[in-house]
Amino acid sequence: MATEARALDDSYRLGPPAPFYRRYPVALWRFIRHYPLGAFGAFFVVVLILMAAVPAIFTPLEAQDPLRQSIGDRLQAPSASHWFGTDELGRDLYARIVFGARTSIIIGFGVVLLSKALSVVLGTISGYYGGLFDTLLQRIIDIGIAVPGLVFIILVVQTLAGRIGDMLAIVLSLSLLIATSSSRTIRGVALSLTTEQYVDAARALGAHDVRIMARHIVPNLFAIVIVSASILVGNAVLIESSLSFLGYGVQPPTPSWGRMLNDARQQLVRAPHLAIFPGLVIFLTVYSFNMLGDALRDRLDPRLRGSR
Questions:
Q1: Using CA atoms, how far apart are residues 58 and 249, in angstroms rounded to an integer?
Q2: DSSP string, 164-224
Q3: In this structure, what are the phi and psi dihedrals at residue 81, rounded to the nearest 5 degrees?
Q4: Where does residue 49 rank: exposed (0-12), middle (13-18), buried (19+ CB within 10 A)?
Q5: Nearest Cα residue to 179 out of 212, 206, 144, 154
Q6: Are residues 111 and 60 in contact, defined by beta-carbon separation less than 8 angstroms?
Q7: Which of these, 116, 256, 274, 279, is most buried using a 10 Å CB contact count?
Q8: What's the average pLDDT block by block, 10 residues per block, for the chain (308 residues)?
Q9: Spacing of C-alpha 296 from chain mean position
Q10: Quick one: which of 116, 272, 241, 239 has its CA closest to 180?
């Protein structure tokens, strides 16, 4: 009793917890100090999202129009009027990179949202019910994993691009491809969660299967889903750039980083900046998402939290 009274007295003297606006800077500084690369990745991701949402903020000059052509200014080197130079049609490369962020972010986040939703549903149902249903579903997923990824994406994009648009076709094909392999991880975790005592207690109380999955299994998958999603965004951006480089991605005149690299192949000796800047942006984007994902994994995984 004396110990409990002393604890209550200490908590009373300490007062209520600090408000959010005071705790947030402390938590942010702690994250930056413990995970500097993750903080850099988070900063670059925020910049990319701002570029995608309001690109006009990053293109203040009148000449920085991504679709404005000026044959007299073609293949110019970086200068004060054209920060990253111009391409073979005289278009400002910096503006095209900024507006190309919208394509990459929409495809990257769209693929992650759709693929993670599909993988959580498939993996949770498969792991919860098990038995014959699990076996049949996993064999179907095996078939999906066995299909060559690039061939599948190109086939779906070429089939659906004219009907639903380039970006939506890319998002759909990448989501289906990623969801098949990602659902395996979700299934493994769901299998272990179904043996927990709180799941058995919910069954004993008469809870429906859908309620058990929605209230007791899916919330415990959030940490894994968030970490893998942050890494998958970078992978989706890289795959979209690869498709655009091969000519199967977003079609012109929509700015795309991969298509910029494709267009730069003919001018590598004369204008190397056409390949340097889009390639650098793709590298920083993938690197930032991967570093952010690693930091979130270390922060959210209780087994790794004490190692920092």
A1: 25
A2: H-HHHHHHHHHHHHHHHHHHHHHHHHHHHHTTSHHHHHHHHTT--HHHHIIIIIGGGGHHH
A3: -85, -30
A4: middle
A5: 144
A6: no
A7: 256
A8: 48 53 73 87 92 88 79 86 87 91 89 90 88 86 84 86 85 88 86 85 85 86 81 85 83 85 85 90 91 82 53
A9: 13
A10: 116
d(CA 238, CA 280): 12
The amino acid sitting at 18 is A
The owner of tokens 């110990």 is: 3
The CATH fold of domain 35-68+79-305:
MetI-like fold (1.10.3720)
Domain spans of the chain?
35-68+79-305
The SS3 of residue 280 is helix
In the structure encoding, which two tokens stand for residue 124, read together? 């949770």
Query: Phi/psi zone of residue 74: left (φ > 0), alpha (ψ -120 to 50 degrees), beta?
Result: beta
* End-to-end CA gap in the chain: 37
pTM: 0.80
Gap between the Cα atoms of 308 and 300, Å rounded: 12
What type of residue sits at position 28?
L
**Cβ density class 105-117: b for 16+ within 10 Å, e for less:** bbbbbbbbebbbe
